[in-house]
Amino acid sequence: MSEGSSQLKSPPSQQLDEQELLASLDLSRLPKHIAVIMDGNGRWARERSLPRVAGHRAGAEAARTVIQASSDLGIEVLTLYSFSSENWKRPRMEVRALMKLIEVNLRREIAELHRKGARVQVLGRLQDLPASLVKELEHARELTAHNQKLNLNLAINYSGRAEIVDAAQRLGEKIAQGELDPQDITEELFAQHLYDSEMPDPDLLIRTAGEFRVSNYLLWQIAYAEIWVTPVLWPDFCRVDFYQAIHDYQGRQRKFGGIAHAS
């Protein structure tokens, strides 16, 4: 996808403030599932002559804001791209600091998330993560397993291609064991073998920092997602930006390959 693709560019801000944008939203037509590619932490830090980890810390505050805003609006599912499988290529010290930041923030926030009815799920290959982080993630999942207000998915050590490969392997094992006929594999059955088979496909995909890429994120699930790109760096992303994304989403006609439908 090129940066000249008009289908992906978000309309210019109408300069509405937070309350005006909130009032403009049709709460009966909110996206059920919002997925976010949180990009720009490093650039944010570099512009301020700070270490990259400072950008990640600031980005964690932006994530907290978006989680709270989603809860306040009644969004059903929020999926945050917290750490991709490709991020292991970054400097070792940065990766180590980011792993610890995720762990510490989760430990600090989980009681409040639980109190507010959030259900935490994790997407990705957890076996490669530090044991202490896996322990926190498992605790978060167990503690919040029965909550129903906001489904919060954390994509950690996540790769869209790897998720599809893992699903194919699970199906392959069933075929090898004689439990499944290859001819019986449908899109619906395949989707049931993804990391979270109960998760509805994203209606809206938000990407910050002005990049026009999906970056190996939820490749199966975003087939018909509306994509909204903003030049705002993730640490600067706030409720105004979040509401603007939803406002623009509600102004689009969704076709799903056929006749247009209001979002």
Number of DSSP-assigned strands: 8
What's the CATH architecture name of the domain at 30-160 and 201-253? 3-Layer(aba) Sandwich
Q: Structural class, from helix and strand content?
A: alpha/beta
Query: For this structure, what is the CATH class of the domain at 30-160 and 201-253?
Result: Alpha Beta
CATH superfamily of the domain at 30-160 and 201-253: Decaprenyl diphosphate synthase-like
CATH topology of the domain at 30-160 and 201-253: Undecaprenyl pyrophosphate synthetase
Describe the protein's architecture and organization.
The protein is globular. Strands 3-4-2-1-5-6 form a 6-stranded parallel β-sheet, sandwiched between helices. It has a domain at 30-160 and 201-253: Decaprenyl diphosphate synthase-like (Undecaprenyl pyrophosphate synthetase), CATH 3.40.1180.10. Helix 5 links the parallel strand 3 (118-123) and strand 4 (150-158). Helix 1 runs parallel beside helix 8 (239-250) and helix 2 (41-47) crosses helix 3. The chain is an alpha/beta fold and 263 residues long. It contains 8 helices and 8 strands, in the order H-E-H-H-E-H-E-H-E-H-H-E-E-H-E-E.
